[in-house]
Predict the 3D structure of the following.
Amino acid sequence: MESRRYPFSWPISPESIARETALFERELAEAAAGSGSDSRVVLAARCRLGRAYRIAGRYHDAVELHEMNLEECARALGPGDPATLAARCELARSWLSAGRLADGAAGLERSLADLDRVLGADHPDTILARCDLGLVLSRPGAVARAQRLLEQALADSKRVLGPDHPDTLTCHTWLAMVHGIAGRNGLALKLVKRNMVACERALPPGYPVEIECRSVLGMCYRFTGRAAQSIAEHKRARADYERVLGPLHPLAIAERASLARAYGQDGQHDAAIAALQQASTDSDRLLGADDPSSLTVRIDLGDAYARASRAAEAIAVLKRASADCKRVLGHDHWITLESRARLARAYAIAGRRRKATVLYRQVLAGYERTIGPDDPTTQQYRDVVAQTPRARNGASRLPERRSP
């Protein structure tokens, strides 16, 4: 069974990805030379190459190619042609990978509505888009809708593609993660462990879908406070990503950051800081310092300094991260609000409770504006504001950052 997400033949390695990407480039050049720039053959070849660029971690190349392909599809085939709908969905995925979160989310919303209307709810492309949108919405204020989308996508994928299809297994992984993000730790761990067994049974060892499931298993172990098991799963996922995609692939870098969070929970603060320092350097160099993934790693690094009682370093890193998040993502984006909350905790650890309280109130006000006063995240920060003046060591226990 082939995943619609991965255009490469098995086994996958950095060398095979480079080799097959070169073949896709040659295929596109030959198709364009023989058929013209807007034939269906050329449009399909360009879509395959753009998907290959994205899987290879060449996100900006993927965006450029998919933007061109969508324009050509719409002009040659019309806005409602299935190839145009697929091109718009691929562009949305590439925008998300390249850090253009608002564009990507809006693109997936439109793509899902169009695919549902034109191809029907049971078409594999529609199911895939619904699953992707569920993942995108796995953030404060949208978790309930993410869960509904993923539950529907999983049920449809099981029925249409089969329970062991790679795309079904991916949807199962993401649904387990959303339950964990929502604080349903026991259910999340139960679901992801069951899916891990299915991945190991149905997929070749080290297949990207299996690695992603293992990473989420490590995350769910961390949510339940089982740091040693979390570390073990994240170490294995990191090794698999580095072997299959390469050590400087964005997913390998992100997995090192996930491992560092598990180190921090286990009290291995020096190991966590070292891993995050390297991940931050690599992410800045590969994706750019303003990419949301790079900003998130920087927030994690500042938080690791704070957990290690290195408050001055934490404040320096988090002040920069918070300012960059505000500039890049906006004042009330949830990543910006989380950066400000981590900065507040660093000030509290340094004994500057008044400054911490001011920042926590800003975070609370931001969540009240964006997701409403009754959302669980808002309520948690309301408790933080109340507890900070009397918290031991000045530092309140913050809600754990659980979004992917």
